[in-house]
Every structure is written in C-alpha cells, then in structure tokens.
Amino acid sequence: QVQLVESGGGLVQAGGSLRLSCRASGRTFSDYAVGWFRQAPGKERESVAVISWSGGMTHYADFVKGRFTISRDNAKNTVYLQMNNLKPEDTAVYYCGAVRSTPRWAPDRAYEYDYWGQGTQVTVSS
Q: Do the strands 58-60 and 68-73 form a parallel or antiparallel pair, or are they unpaired?
C-alpha cells in the first residue's frame, strides 16, 4: 500500500505561481510512477503531468507545457508540481496518483493509477 498526501494548493492571482507537493508513505516510493491530475466541477479528471520512478521520463498535457514542471525527490518520497503563469482555467482540485512501473514509463490515464491522494484545491482568480 502507498499513502499519498498532497499539499501546496491555495488561492492565487492569474500569472502567479504555486508549488504542489505529493508526499508518499508505505512501500518503496522509488518503484512508482507518479502523475498529477486535476478535476474541475462537472468535468472528467484529466492528466496534467506524469513522471517515471527514475525521473527519466516526463510527459505534460499540452495546456501546461512551458508553464508547469514535474520533478521528484525519491530520498524524500516526494513529487512536486511547480506551476507558473497560472490561469483561471487552471482552477481545479489537483490529485496525485501512483502506480508501480518500469524505470522510464509513466502512464497518463487516470484509470491506470492504483493509489490516490485526497486532493488539494487550486483556485486562480482573474
């Protein structure tokens, strides 16, 4: 079992920045790919960014490329999502998910993830 806890969400003005953290406990976190997903009211959960357990593979949704950066520190059992130049349409609950994977693979579909955190709210005002 892997337990995930997200933090770092909040209210920010458009153009501002936030850094989300996803801290894991339980099994060896370094064996797990991690993805950040978001869900706005009335919408499906969508992939934002994913990272393999080695950190050697990352993938971003087109709508965040150049603005968001995913990274991980396996020694701290933590994955980060640095979000810059935030827009009102980035408003959502952000979740991190984890799944055991190979060193350079991370899926980008929510159904492929086995463990989830409780989510952290990000609100961007215009």
A: unpaired
| 119 within 8 A of 93, measured Cβ to Cβ | yes
Residue 28 confidence class, pLDDT cut points 50, 70, 90:
confident
How confident is residue 26, by pLDDT bands cut at 50, 70 and 90?
confident
Distance, CA of 121 to CA of 124 (rounded, Å): 10
Give the strands of the sheet with 68-73, arranged side by side.
2-7, 18-26, 78-83, 68-73
- HSE of 34, CA atoms in CB hemisphere, 13 A: 32
pLDDT in tens, 73-118: 999 999 999 999 999 999 999 999 999 998 899 999 999 999 999 9
CA 74/CA 53 separation, integer angstroms:
8
95 burial via Cβ count (<10 Å: 0-12, 13-18, 19+): buried
Residues in CB range of 116: below 8 A, 6 or more apart: 4, 95, 96, 97, 98
Looking at the DSSP bridge assignments, the partners of residue 33 are 99
Beta-strand pair 115-116/2-7: unpaired
